[in-house]
Amino acid sequence: MRVTDLNKGEYLPYFQPYINKIGDLILLDGLVEGLEQTMRFFQSIPVDKLEYSYEANKWTIKEIINHLMDSERVFAYRALRFARKDKTPVAGFEENHYALESSANNRTIEDLLEEYALVRQATIALYKTFGSDSDILKRTGVAGGGDVSVRAIGFLIAGHEKHHCEIIRERYL
Fold first, then answer.
1. CB-based contacts of 53: which residues, under 8 Å, 6+ apart?
2. What is the CB neighbour count within 10 angstroms for residue 81?
3. 85 with 138: CB under 8 angstroms?
4. Which of 35, 36, 72, 100 sits at a 20 to 30 Å CA gap from 154?
5. What digits encode the pLDDT tens for the residues 80-138?
6. Sequence-separated (6 or more) residues with CB below 8 Å from residue 142
7. Which tens digits make up the pLDDT trace of 24-58?
8. What residues make up the domain containing 144?
9. What's the number of domains the chain is made of?
């Protein structure tokens, strides 16, 4: 299952920039490789930058890491529901409120990265149960006011991760 297999109607236009960031990625490979690359990147960040914010009211790097975990959990939950043919619409979530309530800056980087790896490993395990080219990946549901497929959610997770790593490189380091 590759990015080029997606149809435009499988996700909201809002998510197009994230999808564009990952090229013609193979879904499971991208989730695995993304974890490895992102962990190396986060481990390379100087400790004195982890609680730095480039502007007032912007997240710190620790808060971005926590945001990635929160978002991935929400996205994976949506994928599970839609994979199981649950047609109940799923509301969006307020990412800024989640970040404020995360207490990420009170945690060690080691603790954050351990949890980050566990969250991604759980996502990978979940997507393995869907199969690589199955009809399950094509199932859709409504999240945040629009249709989204199980496979689009997986690609969104990978693209969202890449997006935030680029933001950190450009604005924080």
1. 59, 60
2. 17
3. no
4. 100
5. 999 999 999 999 899 999 998 999 999 999 999 999 999 999 999 999 999 876 799 99
6. 87, 89, 90, 148
7. 999 999 999 999 999 999 999 999 999 999 999 99
8. 3-171
9. 1
Q: Which residue has the tokens 């999808």?
A: 19
Give the ranges where the chain is alpha helix by DSSP (H): 16-20, 27-44, 61-83, 95-101, 109-130, 150-171
Whether 102 contacts 66, CB under 8 Å: yes
Quote the Cα angle for 38-44-48, to 5°: 120
- Residue 131, SS3 per DSSP: coil
84 in helix, strand or coil?
coil
Task: At 8, list the tokens.
Answer: 């435009």
